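can u pls check wat happens w/ pantoate
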Amino acid sequence: MIVATTIRAVRARRQELDRLGRRVALVPTMGALHEGHLSLVREAARRADEVWVSIFVNPTQFGPNEDFDRYPRQLERDRELLEAEGVALLFAPTTKEMYPKPPSVLLDVPQLTAGLCGAHRPGHFRGVALVVVKLFNILRPEVAVFGAKDYQQATVIKRLVEELDLPVEVVVAPTVREADGLAMSSRNAYLHGPDRQAAAILQAALRAAAAALVAGERRGQVLEGIVAAHVASEPAARLQYAAAVHPDTLEPLETVGDRVVLAVAAFVGGVRLIDNLVVEVP
Ligand code: PAF
């Protein structure tokens, strides 16, 4: 596996692959890799000749009071995991390499980021949009694979690709879960003891709302109330939002049609967790 830390090195490798006509599938990450990331790597491997992974804890997507400084960093372990998966290239730039000066470009998709996580993490999706577009320009992958756990992020990226005519196919791969339903996330490393058990409430809450939906409940607010009530039943959890939104526009649904995204964010033992379920109404 090539480990590249500079834009120059990775561009040189990309030019070689262009000459050979080889296709690249990129998995952009912030490291602290877990089985969820590795499932994205495997999905990427099915779609191109080479899998490239980026590891960059992107400062522009963290708010001033968020966990940028303590975000788990374990590059050596990540490198070994990726090597074992047969990844061809790891791009692990420094902050200075990605942002030699403070960025002045703003990439904003306000229609998609006004609600859900965007309402609680001002500037977060601008940071994600900027770094992802930079990564696409630097690495020029034919395919890029993202996880469905970050539904709003994937929706924003798909819109950017569409409207900016970026020549990359965006693939969204299913969320990988622990045995109790907890969605895998690098931030799960912050959860200890009873908080780890309590964290399963997010998925249980979404499943309860999905069951009500299948049983005939179509009112968006009632479904949100079911999610909220479940989260409230867990003393270690504090709800940030519960939402029933349209899968494409991310707008709240008064009445659910044939598809809905049920989404939740909650703090468990001080750790902010998110999850979602896309439900097709029978
Ligand atoms: O989902 C993530 O890990 C990050 O938001 C991403 C897409 C790598 C951008 O920094």
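Residues 157 and 163 are 10 Å apart (CA to CA).
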